[in-house]
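From the thread on structure requests for the teaching lab: each student submitted one protein with a one-line request. Submission from student K.M.:

"Model CBU-0592-like domain-containing protein from Flavobacterium cheonanense, tokens only."
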Amino acid sequence: MSYNDIIGSIGVLIILIAYFLNNFSIIKQNGNLYFFLNIIGASIACYTSYLINYIPFIILEGTWALVSVVGLLKSIKKPQD
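Reply posted by the TA:
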């Protein structure tokens, strides 16, 4: 496995962990941890896509990370239930 494969796999694994935890109601979909895991995972996957110069996934993962940042900021500003 190459460096790119390892780093990319870690990013995708983090995104899948967030999805799994949310799907089984272990973490909230609009919770800070969910957004944080998506930001980290998508950013790593975006970086790996950049390393291999694969533009479609740079756009996908970059957008995923940015949308998650916005979600995290909104979650932080919102009064907690």
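TA comment: Residues 31 and 81 are 11 Å apart (CA to CA). DSSP finds three helices and no strands in the chain.
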